[in-house]
Fold each of these.
Amino acid sequence: MQPDPHLHLARKTSPGGSGLSTSAGRAAELNARFAHAGATEVLQAAFAEVPDIALVSSFGADSVVLLQLAARIKPDVPVLFVDTEMLFDETLQHQRRVAELLGLTNVHVIRAKNTSAQDPDGTLHKTDTNACCALRKTEPLQQALAGYGGWITGRKRHQSGTRARLNMFEIEVGSTRLKVNPLALWSAADTIRYMKSAQLPRHPLVAQGYPSIGCAPCTTPVTQGEDPRAGRWRQTEKEECGIHFVDGKMVRSGDKT
Ligand code: SF4
């Protein structure tokens, strides 16, 4: 079993609910209790706190790390994968390969129910990327998440300035849904080290210059020295896909997922 880079800092925890009456208080208590915990322990706590929690994954460049950590604890965790029908073929192949490799038994492929009305020829991304992301990503995910009490993401503090203070446990504003970020404290080096140690497969496009991978029309390779996310929505003002929403609305956070 591969070491969790932060596990050596883990504190003793007790399973079960926090007993706090408000969701915000519950998240705060969990953050205090798990401030120095490893990702595995955070995941265990998440599963204990919210039995109907789902894991949302893009099966992107390093998504396999969180998926592997979760699969070791709960291989039947519901994994929500949004297929925008604009993804690289390599992503779809990687998704199937990783799910099989890790023994994930409960992967849900989420697609927009009807794109033909708003995007009949699949070119909406050329004229309105926000509308396209809402149609193909945000709204289908939001609908899928409605059936769950919380969700787990792979977001990390180092990924952007807007994530620099990311907590491991959050509550969506205006909701009681718990959002858990077990890898929040992981550095890029932690991720690479873990993947090598565990011999986990990277997304095949990473080797072709794509350190951050979204939809095919909106993702380009990056050159040496560029921000790893520079290839997402290149030459546009767009900075995020809206997948992380607050109060049922897209968050203009500058995050690229
Ligand atoms: S990333 Fe591009 S193609 Fe994918 S949903 Fe957003 S705008 Fe559409």
Amino acid sequence: MKKFPRSAYVHIPFCHRRCFYCDFAVIPLGNKIESLNGNGSKTVKEYLNFLNKEILSIKHKSPLSTIYIGGGTPSILNPLQINDLINLFRENYRIDYGAEITMEVDPASFNEEDLHGFIKAGINRFSLGAQSFNNQILDQAGRRHSRQDIEKSCFWLKRAYEVGLIKSWSLDLIQNLPSSGFEQWQEDLEKSLSFRPPHISIYDLTIESGTVFKKLVDLGKLSLPNDDESFKNSEITNSILKKSGYSRYEISNYSLPGHQSRHNRVYWSGLGWWSFGQGSTSSPWGEKFTRPRISKDYKKWVTEQCEIKLDPSLLNQENIYKELDEKIMLGMRLKEGINIYKLINEQNWDDKKSKISLKILLKEWDRFIESGHLIKRGNRFFLSDPKGMELSNPILVSMFRWWEKVS
Ligand code: SF4
């Protein structure tokens, strides 16, 4: 029986301005939104029309068990617009009872009344992009919000969670931002824990080309923690969060029991998902497809592909299995790791090829087991925590080299 995706990602590309480290597909709107009394600017309304068309273009719409509204800054939309979006899925796809419906929110882009409006619209999990509690660090990163904004947002979210209005919420931080030393980072962690968010995501800063940070790095004007300092930060993150009852279920994600992100697990577990909106990537049948990142091109694509000829990524095809290297890479991010024997069996290789390929890979991995980066338990291989989780790159590089040889 054909399995249809049960998860949908929706991309809302609007932000007030572009942060200095960000290379996402975003449209900076300045204060245009506020000046229109929250009803949404013309740009936003126009985008939502195209987004709706794209969402409706899927032929076999099956009930969804997770929806994730990300961005950009989805909280730039008003509760009515979020309500319309969720209703579109409710009426055309149906939403499972108990589905996880997440929305990313940015401090200073919503108030408590908006939050209740989003909840009324059907959102039951929020992800708050705090990044740091230090005003100077936030400023240097080009963020628009302050520590006070985060504190208010955390307080509203905590209260909504405690009275049962939402199922969960996540606080997101960025590790190794410029000027964030060891003491400062510990302060950020302690402050975050004072709100007891059920889920915490810790992303490592990466310097992407085309960003303000990249220009500053090239000019030698950005002071970033070196490898040893970064490792020390990761170690303390791991130890503080674990002592506080959080489990690291994925390289960048920690949760209290029962609060893992169901939607994100779909990405890491290799299950299919729909994706809608400018610059977003879907993988309904295993093969990835990214929509145009530029507004004009995205609208043209929606018009051409959804109204005239459906793009293959929107057609229902037989499931195309992910390549083995991608399955290993994604599976290794998770605490439970992978069963390499099972994955190789699924390759439909003949016996000889399976045995030889497995032997070469296991030989490669022996040295990581010896160094304590990789753990073997029964048929499963997983990264040790924190050593392997922090230094997973050499393991993945050796696996990709192996894959090039055997594929
Ligand atoms: S708010 Fe998020 S998506 Fe928007 S520019 Fe900043 S980092 Fe990028």
